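TL;DR need structure tokens for one chain.
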Amino acid sequence: MSHRTREQLAAEAVELLGRIEGPGKPLTVRDRLAIPPQEMPQQDPVKRCSNMNEVALGYTPEQARLESMRCLQCKNAPCIEGCPVRINIPAFLAAAAEGKFQHSIDIIKKSSLLPAVCGRVCPQEVQCQLHCTVGKALKDINKAVSIGRVERYVADLERESGKLETPAVKPETGRKVAVIGSGPASITVAADVRREGHGVTMFEAFHKPGGVMMYGIPEFRLPKAIVQKEIETLIAMGVDVKTSFVVGRTRKLSDLIEKDGFDAVFVGTGAGLPKFMNIEGENLVGVYSANEFLTRVNLMRAYDRAHADTPIANSRRVAVLGGGNVAMDAARSAVRLGAQEVHLVYRRTEAEMPARIEEVAHAREEGVVFHMLQNAKKIIGDDMSHVRAMECLRYELGTPDESGRRRPVEIKGSEFIMEVDTVVVAIGNDSNPLIKQTTPQMVTSKWGNIIIDNKGKTSIDKVYAGGDIVLGAATVILAMGQGRTAAASINELLAEK
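>> reply
TL;DR here they are.
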């Protein structure tokens, strides 16, 4: 990947935009297809390994316009079909192409409450951009219109210009809604319900609201100031945010309705229960779940050793087990914490990795060593019960499993030793079990996910749910889509009352 500076990319964009707009003629389909995809400016790989600043620096105004001009304005708009909240993508791109950036973000915000977040962390390449006609016409999905990057640009521009407005709230209705959790689904519900004039109280177990956006996604992918701004908007709307409040421990869910007088409850507690491999040595000192590791790094700022006392291992050789975005986040965080070597161990090939292509590329640039078709068999400790090595197995791919990916099959007798002093297990999460454990009447799947109907309602009257607690570990935009559905149902219920 080339790494031209932001200044170089800006200069190229200014020159190209001048040539395109010079003749003053409407762009044809051929003209639009001839515009090259705009490269995202980013920090130099060597420099960024020693800081937690955002890697992707964002488009320049000219780049945002050029990328938007690549949209063919298809009448059938297949990109919208790939968007979980059905943003009017051609319309916001058309506005951006003309330089009407405020109009562009206004269009997005009719459907999405978190454009600055989604523009950074959502996997557009398997959602809206997967269906892009430009990518199909050029026979390369990587050359589809970079919808998320333009979304990020117009959202950042509005925030940085100080033009963010607090959404209007209708007159108070006297109704009260409890929102459990403060991640993307919960933020969406809180905003949509509050707009209708209902009182909203958000209960968050951690000391800071924001859910997975705050504790799970690293600063270099999603600056926490952006998440904090969204929470501040909710508070400005009149949402009451209570932190360090664990529903199921501090207060049972049923008490919120029966004793505290809430007219409806939304459960958005996420998928916070880490999965382990159940192999020998997982209880050794130096073994982390990705959840714990990333929470220490992000929410508790373990990387800021001068100002935070959060304990975390001073690792020399780190192994991260897994191949998703969380595994990439853990590996790249370990690099920034000063590890001399970071190894990512995955039992399939790179083609089967669920992580975003961009995140994999960034990890490679930052020196993460990839070990494909391998996995840990056991973790080996020293006489002080600290990790000193892993015994690993080699694999080959067999027939497809229920996910559609080819099943990894271990190669007998292929064991080998990898010397490491820290192991981060990043093989996924299960749904938070606390609500189920303390609300036995709640119907869940065999995996612990809350079962809902097509309106987001659970098996309990007045109780709705959405996000990872329903879907399992999913994306921000999918969680928001479920939050929007549940909020509409709650508003309908309260209107009937």
